[in-house]
Design a protein that fits this description.
- The protein contains eight helices and two strands, in the order αβαααααααβ.
- Helix content is 46%, strand content 4%.
- It has 219 residues and is mainly alpha-helical.
- The protein is globular, with a radius of gyration of 17 Å.
- The protein has a two-stranded antiparallel ribbon.
- The protein has a single domain, classed as Lysozyme (Orthogonal Bundle), CATH 1.10.530.
């Protein structure tokens, strides 16, 4: 199933600006092997239209409505809010991450402010350090204040740290924030995830539609 006409414009809207949150940090540069660099470069190159992938459209709509209601005070514009949520869900799933955990990370890193800039130079919703653009050979076309670019880089980077830490999310979050070994940041992100963004869908009765992918490019 597809987005209706109203939701078609989700990917066309810019989000509001703002200042960074108190716990915004900075990834620390570490040399990458050629194979790792090539894999990460490939991972950020995806240009497919973001979508919500659920078994049914009703499940996708339930998630979007639930997350949108929680984000409304931070991003009052519904279209901008849903654009962000659809993209977070797509990029997180694509990187093998829980979308609600990523929302918790964004809350802590930037307070959902598109143009957040930390004292260390980290940028955007997920506070990505600019050195990643050069390390991955992405070129000047990659603007880290662009919503999807920022979310894609952020999710790929966190996945990379998870792989380094063999699935240990606590340590991966510490690497992401540049505070490895310090408990404060991982604890705050996990608290935001479980306290604000936890999602338990209501069980549905029998009938299901044929596919539940809500995209932002269809009628």
């Amino acid at each position: 199933m597809r987005f209706n006409r109203t939701l078609r414009v989700l990917l066309a809207c810019a989000l509001t600006a703002g200042a960074p949150a108190a716990y915004a940090g900075a990834q620390i540069y570490e040399p990458l092997s050629a194979s790792v660099r090539a894999a990460l470069t490939k991972a950020i190159a995806d240009q497919a239209v973001p979508y919500l992938a659920f078994e049914t459209e009703s499940e996708a709509r339930e998630w979007l409505n639930s997350m949108s209601a929680r984000l409304e005070k931070r991003i009052p514009d519904r279209v901008a809010r849903e654009e962000l949520l659809v993209t977070v869900h797509y990029e997180a799933k694509r990187a093998g991450l829980d979308p609600q955990m990523v929302l918790g990370l964004i809350q802590v890193e930037s307070a959902f402010r598109k143009y957040a800039l930390s004292s260390a130079g980290a940028r955007g919703f997920m506070q990505v350090m600019p050195f990643w653009v050069n390390v991955l050979g992405a070129g000047e076309d990659y603007n880290l204040f662009h919503m999807r670019t920022n979310l894609r880089f952020g999710c790929v980077i966190l996945r990379h740290y998870l792989d380094i830490e063999k699935g240990d999310l606590y340590r991966a979050l510490g690497r992401y924030n540049g505070s490895l070994g310090k408990p404060q940041y991982p604890n705050i992100v996990l608290a935001a995830w479980r306290g604000t963004w936890n999602f338990l869908p209501v069980p549905k009765a029998a009938s299901r539609s044929a596919g539940g992918n809500l995209t932002a490019s269809s009628m």
